[in-house]
Amino acid sequence: MAMLAWNVRGLGNKDTVRALKNLCLKYKYDIVFLSETKQKKRYLEKIRMKMKLENAFYVEPNGIAGGLALWWSQEVKLSVTHHDKNFIDTAMSISGEPEWFGTFIYAPPYEDEKQCFWEKLGALRNDVNARWCVMGDTNIVASPTEKYGGSPFDHNNAKWYHEFLERTFLMEIQSKGGAYTWSNQRSEEEEICEKLDRVLTSLEWGFLFPKTIVVIDAAIASDHAPVVMLLNGLQKKFKKDFKFESSWLIEEECSQIVKEEWTSTGGGHQKGTFRVNLRRTKVKLGKWSKEKFGKNRLTANNILKEIKDLQEAPLNKEDALKLKELKSELTKNTELQGRVA
User: Fold this and answer.
1) CB 106 within 8 A of CB 114
2) Buried b / exposed e across 58-82, counting CB within 10 Å, b at 16+?
3) Residue 238 falls within a domain, yes or no?
4) What is the β-pairing status of strands 175-177 and 213-216?
5) Would 341 be classed as within a structural domain?
6) How many domains, the chain?
7) CA-to-CA distance for 285 and 297, rounded, in angstroms?
8) pTM value?
9) Taking every annotated instance into account, which residue ranges of this chain make up the domain Endonuclease/exonuclease/phosphatase (predicted)?
10) pLDDT digit string (tens) for 266-279?
């Protein structure tokens, strides 16, 4: 099972939607939580259906600010227990496993709202032995090692967060990937990098999912990086099923292959049955797609790896320019693969 928490900083442009779609293709999430959507339910529902997640709950934005979206698959039994503009609290179970609580957060960035938020969040669970997972944007730099650039680390700013941890006995799952999850995307002396997004769990929750891995993915279309949680750890990759890509329809070669394979006798005296023709066409299209688009897919993966490598450390001016070029190249590359949302 895979879960995603991502502060998208607005879901109204095609690049962000495309990045989200690619993430969903990569990990096949059962739960997706998006914060700062800045979009109404009607618009978000169109995107959800493209991601093939059957269920949804929304907190509407205040004008063009804020907004939360929680999507989940039919494999998850989930009910929303509490919510406000900064969090969605749920009770859920997966495939017959014991019930646990999942709270998806977008903590307020303003100092005068932090105390109220963390106290309110802590009051959700009275039982310190509850199976509880908190995931999302904490808007807190918890230690000096989680910050680069800008003003010095502020201990008072993290006070309410640390008191919340002490009261609830939650612990952070150490993540793999970049050291920071947010950047102001500037270079050299103007750059600021911080770790704001994270996953917190209780000891009992950890006993239920001992193989859990948290991954910080590449920040492509937002200044926040997506946080990916894999409850069963890294799984062996299996051969993908054949999938007809809509982008093939604009290729003349595709139409020709379908026509030839569907009408071919295959060396016999009669045309094949429906199943034979279908299988033969799938094989030929698969081979054609690999030859024609395989290079593009490999290139996209290489670009993504370069982006993630650059984002693991503060950028100098040259790296910042390189990162911008790589993101532009990745966008063009994914368009060639027919993944435009």
Assistant:
1) no
2) bbebeeeebbbbbbbbeebebeeee
3) no
4) parallel
5) no
6) 2
7) 16
8) 0.75
9) 5-224
10) 544 345 567 667 76
